[in-house]
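Contributing: when you submit paired examples, paste them exactly as shown. First protein:
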Amino acid sequence: MIARLSTKLRNPWGKPRFLVLVTWLYLAWALLPVLVAMLFSFNQGRSRSVWQGFSIRWWWGDPSQSIFHDPQYTHALVHSLELAALDMLIATPLGVLLALGLTRWRGRGSSAANGLMLVPLVTPEIVMAVSLLLVFTQLAVVPFALVHLGTGAQVIGQVTFSVSYVVVIVRSRLASIGPEFEEAARDLGATPIGALRLVLLPLLLPAILASMLIVFALSIDDFVVTQYMSSNAATTTIPMFLYANARGGTTTPALNALASILVITTLVGVVMAYVLYTVLSRQAAAPGGASVLRELSGLEAAA
């Protein structure tokens, strides 16, 4: 009896079945409304609450109101993908370089720089959006005066908060690698750039690809910063279009289809980031990273 009471006190929930139940209930509460909205994107009629039969009318079948035939829908989709691509191409290399610099910087001000790098992660998005809006519209100082609201401002706004995510992911990978491989390459005669290109970057590849996909997912579903940085209908993204149409006026299941594309794209980006990071990390670590060992062997032969 005493042993049973002691066990219960150490684990008041008993077996982990209760925690599993709570987890599944939370997932159902969070995901079921999304799944219902996605289901009604295949509704035959215009209703978004009454099922009227299965159809791909709102995806492709309707010649004027489906998402791939209505120019408003297609433009919002294309512009969202353009912003996501530009965000990836700019934020990822900047984040990698910033992660390398912050990891190696040991001088005065390094602690402050590391703290500032985390500011976009903890700053409310509405505060960041309003601040950027004031900078681009009220601060008449070069180079801020050269940036006007629109696609350019949207890209800069998304890069501003995306870089921190890249830095966090890459720095975690740097911490797991350690300095040994790079030091070995330097001892074998590699230049700093050569050690970075031949040894460090291949080891960082899982984190670089994962952070790139995370940036894509962040960009494709961002609303606040992108909304504040927009200029006209030509800079409307999927979240902006959904917000504007869901709150005012008549809606159709085509909005559900557009939201489904947003959800699926985001989930695919996150899942691919996880899979790539896991698979490539295992390949790089087994045993010691074959490609890196080949590079070190080549440097040793050259030395």
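Second protein:
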Amino acid sequence: MELNVLNISGKETGKKVTLAEDIFGIEPNDHVIYLDVKQYLANKRQGTHKAKERGEVAGSTKKIKRQKGTGTARAGSIKSPVFRGGGRIFGPKPRNYGFKLNKKVKQLARKSALSYKAAENNILVLEDIDFQVPKTKQVVELKNNLKINNKKLLLVLPNENKNIYLSARNLKKVKVLTASQLNTYDVLNSETLVLTESSIDRINQVFGINQEK
């Protein structure tokens, strides 16, 4: 797949880049996408929920009424779950929701997500950029120049760039990632994927693709 390279003003530079078919042109696999997104969201869960059981709530351990002759059920503690203020039966406990996913499955999921974006023509290639100082206004102008000001944007850089990251972090519909941080969830959650020239080579390296220029 061949795309024109745009400058920061949104105009064509005359250069073109070719996206690797092994990454951006495969037959998407919906099931592995589901698994990878499920793992991503599961890993983001804190899992710190906790409810007190009968042995943990505060209360007297005195037997609250006699065993027989009351005409009601036996009761040995005010902390019993059947009483108001008592412990909870089988309440939630702190746990880790993460689960293992094979590397090849995750890799196929990312390729599938990128292939969906390519098939929908929602990928733009931008020449390498760098901001001298962090300014949100620069990212807003970039979105306007690319005519995607109302769309969710995922900007992919070859390496970490503090000024670009700080410039974009206050914008709700903009996220900045490096090529090595690229994940299935963020690719699918964005409406437009913007790759810088150098990030394409870095993506090929991450997926182990040697593409001749």
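If you have annotations for the second protein, write them as plain sentences, like these:
The mean pLDDT is 91.
The chain has two domains: 2-46+98-206, 51-91.
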